[in-house]
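Review form for a predicted model. The reviewer records the input and the model, then writes brief findings.
Reviewer: anonymous (R2)
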Amino acid sequence: MTIFHYVNGTFVPEKEAYVSALDLSVLRGYGVFDYVQIYQGKAFHLQDHLERFKWSAEQVELTFPWDLSSLSQLVDELLAKNPPIDAGVRLLLTGGPSGQDQLLPETAPQLILLFHPYTPPPERYYTKGMRALTTNLLRIIPGVKTTNYMPAIFAMNRAKKTGFDDAIYLNGQEELLEGTISNLFFFKNGKLITSDSNSIVKGVTRAILLQLAAPYFPIEFRSLPLSEVSSCQEAFLCSSRKEVAPLVQIDDKIIGSGKPGPCSAKLLSLFQNYVANYFAETHQPSC
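Model under review:
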């Protein structure tokens, strides 16, 4: 299966997708990205991801000379060149080649669109639930999807080495914020609880789930203290790739029964139905 990417103005086969060693994303970690889930060759909530991609670039003062309709067209062209499979498209804007000081950009930023065939998370995440380890390391420029993922990498390495599936950011007040690449929710006494802090990335999947949950559960926006975990009945992590993945343990604290619960299962079902209806509504043939 031949995979194509888009690199700075050209669609290229995967083996020809290169970035300069002098690019500031390589030398200094200066860049932003976003990730769009693709279902059978069709992009899910592309506009929302493009808007956040542009917003991230603006927050780190990266020049963004494209209009969103042009970017949307580029994504469509990339999908047309690749097989119509479940996948992901990574939108990447790098700082571009550096000048002599290797600190400031010498030219315009480089736009890269990467097509990743989808590998689903392990089935046990959904049948047995995930286990996560807390970390006091926090994101670089919280809320912005920068390419600097060193805290997440350090935290995930430690989690995997100690038998956990993911890591969760813990702030200085001992409050749980989010996973390394996912948002975090809890169910406690019938309420759905999630952080609304400016220190988290407010994901597209998170926003959809909040809309879907509203008719069924009261929603409370707050960062849950670690000390409250044991009094919660359920928890889950959500992202474009995971959708809704039950979380049954944080550090040594068991959540609820220690098994995936019915409320998380309900939200996963609601989300999957939403995805199916989204494509049925947005890809109907015109009369």
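Findings: The mean pLDDT is 95.
Further findings: Residues 189 and 233 are 7 Å apart (CA to CA).
Recommendation: see findings above.
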